[in-house]
Amino acid sequence: MKGYWLIIGTEIWDDGAQRQYVRLWKPIAEKYQARVNPLKAPPLLKEVRDARRVTIVEFPSYEFAQACYEDPDYEEARRFALQASNRELLILQGELA
User: Fold this and answer.
1) How far apart are alpha carbons 51 and 90 in whole angstroms?
2) Which domain holds residue 81?
3) In the chain, how many domains are there?
4) What are the C-alpha distances in Å from 27 to residues 32, 34, 39?
5) CATH number assigned to the domain comprising residue 52
6) pLDDT tens digits, residue range 10-40?
7) 0.85 cut: is pTM over it?
8) pLDDT, tens only, 73-92
9) What burial letters (b/e) apply to 34-58, b meaning 16+ CB within 10 Å?
10) What's the Cα-to-Cα distance from 31 to each of 3, 17, 41, 80, rounded to whole Å?
11) Among candidate residues 68, 64, 85, 92, the one with its CA nearest the CA of residue 21
């Protein structure tokens, strides 16, 4: 079964931190074979308070999704993501598409 990150975030208020996150994320995504926003249609935000963005990251397996989150390289990248905006990240198992 595939693994997914579902990330729900507020507006980005620190563009520099977001750029740094994206720069650090690229080699991590390659390492874990992650695909960002693989669905044909983006999810709709409903019944949200501060959320403005939804990102889905698909991994070949649930184990890859977990390992990526726990990777020390991702820990560094995550600090920039959390500096750029508030967000919630859920790790899911299954087939979304």
Assistant:
1) 14
2) 2-94
3) 1
4) 9, 10, 22
5) 3.30.70.100
6) 999 999 999 999 999 999 999 999 999 888 7
7) yes
8) 999 999 999 999 999 999 99
9) beeeeeeeeeeeeeeeebeeeebbb
10) 15, 22, 26, 19
11) 85
